[in-house]
Amino acid sequence: LIGEMGEDAEATVSITNNSTSSFSSSSGNVGTVCGTMETGAKLTVNSVTGSNTAAVTAESGNAGGLVGEMKSGTTLTVKGLPSTAAVTANDTLSTENDVTTFRGYAGGLVGVNNDATVIFDSSAPSICNTVTGNSGAGGVFGYFKPSMDKEKEPYCIMMPPPNVTGVLHMGHMLNNTIQDILIRKARDRKSTRLNS
């Protein structure tokens, strides 16, 4: 739809895609809605509907289900999510609902998020089934770099893996409550926070 959004550009889109075509680039970033969002760009996706689960392919760039690369200071607001798409970077055949990359980064929603903001106005996103890659791949972001203010003290909470037995108990609730309290306290102190 949009190859590259220039600095401080703004766009609002609603998409209906019933075609059999796919999105691809031999050099550069590619996404169903936008290839690259330059610094300060703002993109709002009101809805993505249709019967096509289009493949997104970048031979040497970054590939994302919605956006290939978001640069610093950009904002993506998602109000309506697309049906799952096959996202591929660098000449690989992907099966439907899979994300694959070899040279660039691939993400179910955004290939590269470099200090950018993504807002979901609806419920949790429906993303691709399988995400694999050499450089980096993820169900939401292939690569993510958070905003780090050098003036603020960094603060990070490591979250433990899920219980192997699958049985949740009061200890899990207590642990999550304590983590929530600690991260809110750090926010009140204006620390740079990262939950992982």
Quick summary:
The chain contains one helix and 20 strands. With 196 residues, it is mainly beta. The strands form five sheets. It has a five-stranded parallel β-sheet, with no helix packed on it.
Secondary structure topology:
Blueprint: E1 2-5, E2 10-16, E3 23-25, E4 30-31, E5 34-37, E6 42-49, E7 56-58, E8 63-64, E9 67-70, E10 75-78, E11 87-89, E12 98-101, E13 106-107, E14 110-114, E15 117-120, E16 130-133, E17 137-138, E18 141-145, E19 154-157, H1 170-188, E20 192-195
Parallel strand pairs: 1-5, 2-6, 3-7, 4-8, 5-9, 6-10, 7-11, 8-13, 9-14, 10-15, 11-12, 12-16, 13-17, 14-18, 19-20
Note the main attributes of this structure.
20 strands; 5-stranded parallel β-sheet; mainly beta; 196 residues; 1 helix; 10% helix
Descriptive overview:
This protein is mainly beta and 196 residues long. Helix content is 10%, strand content 40%.
Widest β-sheet, arrangement of strands: 1-5-9-14-18
- Integer-rounded radius of gyration: 18 Å
User: H/E element string?
Assistant: EEEEEEEEEEEEEEEEEEEHE
From the spread of the alpha carbons, the general shape counts as globular
Number of strands: 20
**Low-pLDDT residue intervals, each spanning 5 or more residues:** 82-86, 90-97
Number of helices: 1
The amount of beta strand, in percent, is 35-45%
Question: Roughly how much helix do the residues carry, as a percent range?
Answer: under 10%
Instruction: Name the structural class.
Output: mainly beta
Query: Average pLDDT, to the nearest integer?
Result: 75
Distance between the termini: 33 Å
Largest sheet: 5 strands, parallel
